[in-house]
Amino acid sequence: MQIVVLAGGVGGSRFTAGVRRAYPDATITVVGNTADDITIHGLRVCPDLDTLMYTLGGGGDAERGWGRLDESWRAIEELRAYGAEPTWFGLGDRDLGTHLVRTELLAAGVPLSEVTARLCARWWAHDPGLRLLPMTDDPVETYVDIPDADAPGGRRSVHFQEYWVRLHAGPEALALRQVGIEAARPAPGVLEAVAAADLVLVGPSNPVVSIGPILAVPGVREALRSAPAPVLGFSGILHGAPVLGMAHRLLPTIGVAVDAAAVGRHYGSRRADGVLDTWVVDTADAGSAPALEADGLPTLVRDLVMSSPDATAVFVRSTVDQVLA
Ligand code: GDP
Ligand code: CA
Q1: What residues form DSSP beta bridges with 3?
Q2: pLDDT single digits (tens) 277-290
Q3: 30 CA from centroid of ligand 2 (Å)
Q4: What NCBIfam families would the database entry show (predicted)?
Q5: Which residue from 23, 159, 213, 253 has the highest number of Cβ atoms inside 10 Å of its Cβ?
Q6: Which residues line ligand 1 (CB under 6 A)?
Q7: How far apart are CA 147 and CA 70, in angstroms?
Q8: Distance 272 CA to ligand 1 centre (A)
Q9: Which residue, among 47, 45, 52, 50, has the nearest Cα to 12 in the 3D structure?
Q10: Residue span of the structural domain in which 172 resides
Q11: In this structure, are residues 293 and 301 in contact, taking their beta carbons and an 8 Å threshold?
C-alpha cells in the first residue's frame, strides 16, 4: 500500500506516527510544509520538516513537540551576549547541526528535496518505507500583517515565525502572504506520489499555514483532485478550537470560521471543486456531520485526540477501513 500524507510540524508528526503505526508495511510519503521556513543567523531552518524528521526518527523532544531531544541552548546564549538579533527564535545546540548541514548543501546547489533525503538518511534509516518530501524546492515564506500605529498604513508585516514565536499570535492577523508560492513548483516526487497513491491523507495540521501552503503550490491541488486514490481529511479543530497552535488566530484572516465544519467546507468535496472525498471530525463535532453530508461532503465522526500513536492509529485505520469497504 502506498500512502501520501500532507503534514505540517507538530500535529503532522503526531498524525504521521499514527499512520505508520496503523500501516507498518505501507510505503508512506510525507509531503511536508515549507512555508514557515526562515533564514536565521544565515542558517536555513525548515521547522516542519525538522519536526517530522526528528519525531518520526526518535530524536525529537516529545514534550515540547519540536526540536531535539536532550537539547541545550548555549549557542543562542552566545548570540544574545553579542546582541545578535533575532534572539527569540529557539535554536538549540544539537538542532544547529541540522541547520548547518542543510545550509551548506543548499549553498552548494543541492535542492532542498535532496538535502532532506540526506538528512533523513540518518533519522529514518530504520524505516526505509518512510520518505519525506518538502512540498517544493523553491523558497516560500509566510508573512503576517499586524497592526502598528507607527507604521505607514497602520500596519506592518512580520515573518510568520516572528508572529508565532515572538508575538505568540497575539496581534490580530490582518492579512497573510505566502511569498514565493505562485512561482513554486512541487518538489520532485510529490505529484508522482499523489498519482501513484492508494490513499491520500490530509493531516489535522493547521489549515492556514501548514496544509494551505501545500495545496497552494501550483499543481498540488490539481493532483489531489485527479488522484485515483480516496482523499481523506482530518480535522485539527475540535469543538471550535485547535488542540494546539494558532489556527484560531489565522482562520478568520482567510475568512474561515474556527470550526471543524467550516474547515471541511474550506477544503471542499472533490464532487464539487474541493480536494476531499471524506472529512473526519471529532466526536465533539458530530452534530455538524449531517449538514456537511447534505452539502455533499461525506463526513465521518471519530475520537480525533492524538494522545498516542496507538490512539491515532485507531482512528486512521477505522476511517480508512470504512472508506475502502
Ligand atoms: P505546526 O506546523 O507545528 O504548527 O503543526 P501542524 O500544523 O502540523 O499541526 C497543528 C495542528 O494540529 C493544530 O491546528 C492542532 O489543532 C492540530 N492537532 C494537534 N494535536 C491534535 C490532536 O490530538 N488531534 C487533532 N485532531 N488535531 C491535533
Ligand atoms: Ca509549522
Answers
A1: 28, 199
A2: 999 999 999 999 99
A3: 14
A4: F420_cofD (TIGR01819)
A5: 213
A6: 7-12, 14, 48, 51, 204-206, 210, 234-236, 238, 242-245, 247, 304-306
A7: 38
A8: 26
A9: 52
A10: 141-179
A11: no
Name the residue at shortest CA distance from atom 1 of ligand 1.
9
Question: Could you read off the pLDDT of 249-297 as tens digits, one per residue?
Answer: 999 999 999 999 999 999 999 999 999 999 999 999 999 999 999 999 9
Q: Are residues 150 and 53 in the same domain?
A: no
Residue ending a domain, choose from 179, 208, 240: 179
Which amino acid appears at position 177 of this protein? Answer: R
Same domain for 216 and 281, yes or no, is yes
Pocket test for ligand 1, best of 244, 254, 279, 310 (most atoms within 8 A of CB): 244
Q: Locate cell 481529511: which residue?
A: 233
Residues 6+ apart with CB under 8 A from 248: 237, 241, 242, 258
Pocket test for ligand 1, best of 52, 206, 263 (most atoms within 8 A of CB): 206
